[in-house]
Every structure is written in structure tokens, then in C-alpha cells.
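Task card 7
Instruction: Convert sequence to C-alpha cells.
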Amino acid sequence: MDIPQGNRIDAALIERLEIGMTRNQVKFLLGSPAVLDPHRPDQWHYIYYLKNGDDQQSETRRMTLHFKDDLLFGIDGTLNPE
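Output:
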């Protein structure tokens, strides 16, 4: 059995993200962030972990969204499994 954890991060969702989206629009699209840093409230961290049940391989994907004045202005991260 596959074991997914966190927020799904894939190319289809990333393509729907747009600079200038509000926090609520981003949350509607991606769900609540996995990590909210109290020292950097303008950064949202999304993490996705998948352990494949067939071959026991695992992958992790990470993405950080940056907000300014409650609008999305930057996206860091990778869709390539780590």
C-alpha cells in the first residue's frame, strides 16, 4: 500500500498557482500549509512525502510560497523527488 503524507504537490496544481493570488485562494487550491513559521508569517511551507508500497522507494517534494501584503509574490521549491 502506498503511504502519502502532507499536501499533494504536482505540476497540475503548480500551473494553477498565479502570482497575485490571495492567501485564501492559495489555501483553497492547495489546502493549509504543512508548516507555518511564526518568525516568518509571510512564508507558507508545503511538504509532500510518498512511500511506494510496491518497491518501498520514497520521495519528498517541498515548496515554499512567499506572500507580501497577503498576495502571493514568489514560489520556491521543486517537483523533482528528493
